[in-house]
Amino acid sequence: MSSIEMIVAARARLRGHARRTPLLSSPFLNEIAGRRIFVKAECLQHTGSFKFRGGWSALSALEPTVRARGVIAFSSGNHAQGVALAAKLHGVPSVIIMPSDAPKLKIANTRALGAEVVLYDRATQDRDEIGAQLSGERKLTLIKPFDEPQVIAGQGTTGLEIAEQADEEGVKSAEVLVPCGGGGLTSGIALALEASAPTFRVRPCEPDGFDDATRSLASGKIERNATLTGSICDAIITPQPGNITFPIMQRLVGAGIVVSDDDALRAMALAFTRLKIVVEPGGAVALAAALFHGDQVGEENVVVVTSGGNVDADIFAKALELHG
Amino acid sequence: MSSIEMIVAARARLRGHARRTPLLSSPFLNEIAGRRIFVKAECLQHTGSFKFRGGWSALSALEPTVRARGVIAFSSGNHAQGVALAAKLHGVPSVIIMPSDAPKLKIANTRALGAEVVLYDRATQDRDEIGAQLSGERKLTLIKPFDEPQVIAGQGTTGLEIAEQADEEGVKSAEVLVPCGGGGLTSGIALALEASAPTFRVRPCEPDGFDDATRSLASGKIERNATLTGSICDAIITPQPGNITFPIMQRLVGAGIVVSDDDALRAMALAFTRLKIVVEPGGAVALAAALFHGDQVGEENVVVVTSGGNVDADIFAKALELHG
Questions:
Q1: Domain boundary among B98, B118, B142
Q2: Which CATH number belongs to the domain containing residue A186 in this structure?
Q3: Same domain, A71 and A163
Q4: Domain edge (last residue) among B127, B142, B157
Q5: Nearest CA to CA, how far is A42 from chain B (Å)?
Q6: What is the mean pLDDT of chain B?
Q7: How far apart are CA B173 and CA B300, in angstroms?
Q8: What is the 3-state secondary structure (H, E, C) of chain A?
Q9: Is residue B198 domain-shared with residue B69, that is, in the same domain?
């Protein structure tokens, strides 16, 4: 369902709306890794994560009369903000269903980006039921976070930029390390690079204990995580790879790399010191893999995606205190 | 002595070496300021500040046999690192004279970037004498931090990029707020914009108590700061505007804007939350001026330069603790 043609079309729709994020580097990071590291800083994307690409891609692909009725999404995090801003900029309503115990700042941000936030009680209410009712009444279109071709196409535009920017740096082949939740970003980048830089190989990166993609790729079938709580890498904790994203990953990406929460915090501190960017824990796992698990990397050049920067000040301060 | 032709020539020499830093924005910052704010993120430049531009420009303009003998600079901070990396990439030696009580990390970084660091004791030794002796023996070329035409030309390339990037955003006129120490960045950007975006007006920004440029512009003659210690904005504390930079500023820039150290810390915390960039106190004064002193700004659109991000973890954590 997803293809390079869809990614190229998404890029055209994103032009002038999504930011072409920079590809950063530091001799100090190269020295730690023992190879050249290039950092695709998607934390600098609008709303602080790559999710804006997928949100914009999906919204802009809708038939105008359908889009005008509005969209709906379930998310307590980056997808919420990406969809909310994309809807606002399209001038259409968005409804975001969020758990009532989501961080107050994220609820406030999503509202401030123009969304109607509907809170539900995780213990007593069924979010799918609330969503279905609202969608039915108002004929809203559901924007899924990763298992949706136009969302994958939007995330894949990151891969087209990586191919161009790596070429500008003279990089002819590389492993591309990507933080992996449901696999939208990972599969989108893999599809983009298959066509635009076929010598590049994507590797999904995950936190210890939430390595569903890594295990699924190893076993050849979709594996679930035993639990969904207990990692600081909240942005990339999903139950299992998607039904659309997994076959793409199976065909195109290499083995997963698993890092600890402490690795992620160390990578955040180094991104602060050496790159001057703010990365959230889940967005730092690929950088952590390149810096601290280089024995699992096979190429002289590594591109890592820092996929988001929406981290609370206290967690960031903790990373600096432990490793700054 | 400095001119748009020199800046255009510097841009050609910097191409492929200096980074074209992104122009960032956030609807949340626009809301605080009550106008559109665009942030030229020079903290993402190589070595974490705009100083690499001036260093590269000066080194690359030297006659090759002169350059091969090496360069020398006095600096405990961003200029040291900018010159050291520019020299390393040119394959020529650099000597940086630093006070022995400079932060250990900055000494270590400057050495790691390939420079020979010569430490001196502020209390008992004269750095100019040490520098003169070394320069004489080895025929090194002194790279001054701001009062040097090729350094000003390098910093001015930031202004050419601002003109292009603002045009891409549809901005037809703006005030351009620039952190101001000796005036190299301020005067370079002003010269660039005079030619490439004449409806844009530069405004220097300084910390309270170290407002030599603001007072000099007001009185029409070079004024000195009463003291050189006591601000957290170390990167932009200089005794007085330069003899080359001041006449350029006098001709081209508007009145200065003065902010408090606490304003700078607040701006750092907002840059963390809303832009996902790391800004040092001195690099944050222009953003602080746009956010908290908007009554002194006359345009609907403001471009602010965040000129550097070389801040110690404890100062950054303090900004987040107070204002995060």
A1: B142
A2: 3.40.50.1100
A3: no
A4: B142
A5: 10
A6: 95
A7: 8
A8: CCCHHHHHHHHHHHCCCCCCCCEECCHHHHHHHCCEEEEEEHHHCHHHECHHHHHHHHHHHCCHHHHHHCEEEECCCHHHHHHHHHHHHHCCCEEEEEECCCCHHHHHHHHHCCCEEEEECCCCCCHHHHHHHHHHHHCCEECCCCCCHHHHHHHHHHHHHHHHHHHHCCCCCCEEEEECCCCHHHHHHHHHHHHHCCCCEEEEEEECCCCHHHHHHHHCCCCCCCCCCCCCCHHHCCCCCCCCHHHHHHHHCCCCEEECHHHHHHHHHHHHHHHCECCCCHHHHHHHHHHHCHHHCCCCEEEEEECECCCCHHHHHHHHHHHC
A9: no
Smallest CA–CA separation between A28 and chain B, in Å?
A: 8
Alpha-carbon gap: B319 to the closest alpha carbon of chain A (Å): 10
Is some CB atom of chain B closer than 8 A to the CB atom of A19? yes
Model confidence over B59-75: pLDDT tens digits?
Answer: 999 999 999 999 999 98
The reply to whether A92 and A199 lie within a common domain is no
Is A251 found in the same domain as A194? yes
pLDDT level of residue A1 (50, 70, 90 thresholds): low
Give the nearest partner residue to A320 out of B28, B113, B317, using CB atoms: B317
Answer yes or no: do B161 and B257 share one domain: yes
Q: Are residues B133 and B245 in the same domain?
A: no
Q: Is pTM, for the whole model, over 0.80? A: yes
Owning domain of residue A75: 52-142
Same domain, B14 and B130: no
Residue numbers in A near B316 (CB within 8 A): 272, 320, 324
Number of compact structural domains in chain A: 2
